[in-house]
Prior knowledge:
By secondary structure, the protein is mostly beta strands. The chain is about 0% helix and about 55% strand. The protein has strands spanning about 5, 10, 20-25, 35-40, 45-50, 55-60, 65-70, 75-80, 90-100, 105, 110-115. Strands 2, 4, 5, 6, 9, 10 and 11 form a seven-stranded mixed sheet that branches. It has a four-stranded antiparallel sheet with strand order 1-3-8-7, with no helix packed on it. It is globular and about 45 Å long.
Amino acid sequence: QVQVVESGGGLVQPGGSLRLSCAASGFTLSTYAMSWYRQAPGKERELVAVSTTGGRTRYGDSVKGRFTISRDNAKNTVALQMNNLKPEDTAVYYCNALLIERGHDYWGQGTQVTVSS
Length: 117
């Protein structure tokens, strides 16, 4: 059974840090592109960060230099380290696993991140 489960969200003050984790099961994470997306109230879901199977990373313009995506293929996990958080980072954060060749597109249930003083 395929599962993608996010954790680590919460309330943090502006300038603070949070580390989100994504635990995958039922598939081999090393063969999937892993991404973090976020969706704020009233806004469309946006790409935050991508980690490809080849080890490349890509970030949304609004988080470059502040967020870091990393993956541990041995543990089937992906993390998102978020530093210098801003109120505009407030959103539900989702983990995504994508294998285009097989049409596999898996999503977690999301974890809430709130940046507020």
